[in-house]
Specification:
The structure holds 2 protein chains of 2 kinds. In chain A, about 35% of the residues lie in helices and about 25% in strands. By secondary structure, chain A is an alpha/beta fold. Chain A has a 6-stranded mixed beta sheet, sandwiched between helices. Chain A has a 4-stranded antiparallel beta sheet with strand order 2-1-4-5, covered by helices on one side.
C-alpha cells in the first residue's frame, strides 16, 4: 500500500525532518508510527497525503510513484486516503451530517446517497441520532468520531490518523483504536501516528519508531515485548 | 518497480467499493454546478446587511454610467429634432427678375437634398417686416424697398444633419442669383461638440466606475476567501479540486454583479421617471413635444449582463490570486 524508499524531507534552514526513511506498509495492514514530538511523524503523514513533497527518495502508493505527482492530480489521490487529525478539522458552521458527507459532496453524489451513506458512517462510529447537531455541541471524543466517519465514508483503501487520541481520555482512546481495528478488519490499511506508548503496547501492532527524522525501529510490539 | 506517476492507475487499482462512471461524473458536475449556484445565493444572505451594502454600492456605481447613457441618448434625440427643424434662407440679388426667380425655384426643387422651396417676394418681405417691427409708418417714408426676395429652403431628410446641411449650403452658394445663404447651424455644431465632450467624460467616468465595481467585488471575494480559509483547507484535504472550491466564489461574484446591475437598472429607471415631468415642462417652453426615452430591453439586458460579467471577472481575479495559494497545513 505504502512504500518509502530512502525518503528525506529537508525544510528551509537545512532542517531535516526525515532522513532516508524506508518502510513498507502492506495492503490491509495496520501499524503505529511513534516517536517524540518533532521526530518526523507528522511530516511522514504529510508526505503520504501529499501536503508535502519529499526532498529526495521515492514514495509509492498502491504501486504508483507519487513523489512527483502533478498538483492537479493531488485531489483525486486524496479521495483515496482517509485522514484523521488530532484537532478533528471539522467545519463548525455545518452540521455533523454535512461534515461527514463532505467527501461525497465533492465527488458529486446525490443528496439522497450522501445522506444514506453519512447516516451509515455515523452509525458505524456510534453517533446515530447526532446527525443534525453542530460539532460545537459535541464532546472531544464525539468530534473525533465525526472526523473518523468523514474519513471512512468513501471507503478509502488507506486511513491515516495523526494523534487521533491526543485529546481523549484513556477509555475513549481505546474505543477509538478499537474502531480503527474494526475498519482494518474490513481490509483498510491503517497508519496511526501517536506518541502514546502505553496505548500501542495494549494494541500490539507493528510499530514504526522515528527519532530525529530517522526510522530507528520497525517491528511488532509483541516481538519486542517478547 | 513501480510505474511513473499515474493517478488514474492508483484510482483504478484501489479497492473502493463504489466507483462513479463517466456519465455519472458528468451528471455529478452538472448537479454540483446547480447546487453551487443556488447555495452561493443562499450563502449571500447569511450576512444580509453586508451583502445589501455591497449590492447597493455596486448599484449606485453602475447606475451613474447608465443614467449618463440615457441622458446622452435623449440629448441626441433633442438635437436631432432641432436639427431637422432647420431651414436655409436664400437672400436673392435685388435686381433679379420674377421669371429668373421662378427658374431658380424650379431648379432648386429638383435638388435631391431639398424638400421644399418657399418664395417670399420683396413686397411680402416688407409687409411682414412692417407687421413684425411696428415701424410701418416710418417704413412708408422709404423711397425704395430695401429688402431682398427670399427663398426659404427646407432640406430633405438626408441633408438634415450638420454635414448634409453644409454640403447643401456650399452648393447653394454657387448659384449666381443668390446673394447670401444663411443657415443657423453654428449652434448645432456647438451642441454636438458639447455632446461629444460629454460622451468622452461619460466614457471616462464609466471606466472609472466599472473599475471600482471590479475592485469592490474583488475585495469582497478576497475577504470571503480569507474568512473561509479553514473550510477551504479541509475541503482540499478531503479531495476537493480547486475548481470545485472556487466555483461558489465565482457564482457569488456573478450574483453580486447581477443584483448590483438590477439595482442600477431600477435606480436609472426611477431617476429618469423623476426627471420626466421637469424635462417635459422645459421642452414645453421651447414648444417641442418631447418624452424621455428610457433604456430599451436590449440596453437593459446588456447592462445587467455586463454587470454580471464584471462581478464574475472580479471574483475570478481574487480566486486566482488567493484561493489557489491556500494549501492545507
Amino acid at each position: 500500500m505504502i512504500l518509502f524508499e530512502e525518503v528525506s524531507k529537508i525544510y528551509a534552514g537545512n532542517y531535516a525532518a526525515l532522513k532516508e526513511v524506508d518502510f513498507h506498509l502492506k495492503q490491509g495492514e495496520m501499524a503505529f508510527l511513534t516517536g517524540h514530538s518533532g521526530s518526523g511523524k507528522s511530516t511522514l503523514l504529510k508526505l503520504i497525503s501529499l501536503m508535502e513533497r519529499p526532498t529526495t527518495g521515492r514514495i509509492v502508493l498502491n504501486g504508483n510513484d507519487i513523489s512527483n505527482i502533478k498538483g492537479n492530480d493531488i485531489p483525486y489521490l486524496r479521495r483515496h486516503i482517509g485522514m484523521i487529525f488530532q484537532d478533528h478539522r471539522l467545519l463548525m458552521n455545518r452540521s455533523v451530517l454535512e461534515n461527514v458527507g463532505l467527501p461525497l459532496l465533492i465527488e458529486g453524489y446525490s443528496r439522497y446517497e450522501i445522506k444514506r451513506r453519512s447516516l451509515a458512517a455515523l452509525d458505524k462510529v456510534g453517533l446515530s441520532g447526532k446527525e443534525d447537531f453542530s460539532p460545537i455541541h459535541l464532546s472531544g471524543g464525539e468530534q473525533q468520531r465525526v472526523g473518523i466517519a468523514r474519513a471512512i465514508i468513501n471507503q478509502p483503501p488507506l486511513l491515516l490518523a495523526d494523534e487521533p487520541t491526543g485529546n481523549l481520555d484513556p477509555k475513549l482512546s481505546l474505543e477509538i483504536l478499537s474502531l480503527f481495528e474494526s475498519l482494518n478488519e474490513f481490509g483498510m490499511s491503517v497508519l496511526i501516528a501517536t506518541h502514546d506508548l502505553g496505548l500501542i503496547a495494549k494494541m500490539r501492532y507493528r510499530t514504526l519508531t522515528l527519532k530525529d527524522g530517522v526510522m530507528i525501529n520497525d517491528g511488532l510490539m509483541r516481538e519486542r515485548n517478547g | 518497480m513501480a510505474n511513473q506517476t499515474d493517478y488514474k492507475k492508483v484510482l483504478s487499482s484501489s479497492p473502493r467499493i463504489t466507483k462513479v462512471s463517466f456519465f455519472g461524473r458528468v451528471g455529478a458536475v452538472i448537479r454540483q454546478h446547480f447546487q453551487q449556484i443556488f447555495s452561493s445565493f443562499t450563502e449571500l444572505w447569511k450576512t444580509p446587511f453586508a451583502t445589501l451594502m455591497t449590492i447597493l454600492v455596486l448599484g449606485v456605481a453602475l447606475s451613474l454610467p447608465s443614467v449618463f447613457h440615457v441622458l446622452y441618448k435623449n440629448a441626441e434625440r433633442v438635437s436631432a429634432q432641432w436639427d431637422s427643424a432647420s431651414e436655409i434662407s436664400l437672400f436673392l440679388k435685388k435686381d433679379i427678375s420674377e421669371p429668373r426667380v421662378q427658374v431658380l425655384i424650379n431648379k432648386l426643387s429638383m435638388y435631391d437634398d431639398i424638400d421644399s422651396v418657399t418664395y417670399i417676394s420683396r413686397h411680402q418681405a416688407l409687409e411682414e417686416f412692417k407687421e413684425m417691427s411696428g415701424f410701418s409708418k416710418a417704413l412708408n417714408y422709404l423711397d425704395e424697398n430695401p429688402l431682398p426676395a427670399v427663398l426659404v429652403v427646407t432640406p430633405a431628410k438626408q441633408a438634415m444633419n450638420t454635414a448634409g446641411s453644409k454640403l447643401l449650403v456650399a452648393k447653394l452658394k454657387r448659384e449666381q442669383d443668390i446673394d447670401l445663404v444663411r443657415v443657423d447651424i453654428d449652434w448645432i455644431e456647438k451642441l454636438q461638440a458639447i455632446l461629444s465632450l460629454v460622451v468622452d467624460i461619460v466614457i471616462g467616468i464609466a471606466i472609472l466606475l466599472l473599475l471600482s465595481v471590479l475592485l469592490i467585488v474583488s475585495n469582497t471575494i478576497r475577504l470571503n476567501i480569507l474568512n473561509q480559509r479553514p473550510e477551504i483547507e479541509v475541503m482540499k484535504l478531503v479531495g476537493a479540486t480547486n475548481s470545485f472550491i472556487q466555483r461558489p466564489f465565482l457564482y457569488v461574484g456573478a450574483w453580486y454583479g447581477l443584483l448590483g446591475g438590477t439595482i442600477a437598472w431600477l435606480l436609472t429607471f426611477s431617476l429618469v421617471q423623476w426627471l420626466q415631468s421637469g424635462v417635459m415642462d422645459l421642452m414645453g417652453l421651447y414648444q417641442v413635444q418631447f418624452q424621455i426615452s428610457l433604456m430599451s430591453f436590449t440596453e437593459s439586458a446588456i447592462m445587467i449582463a455586463v454587470a454580471t460579467f464584471l462581478g464574475f471577472s472580479a471574483s475570478y481575479i481574487s480566486v486566482k490570486q488567493y484561493l489557489v495559494r491556500i494549501e492545507p497545513k
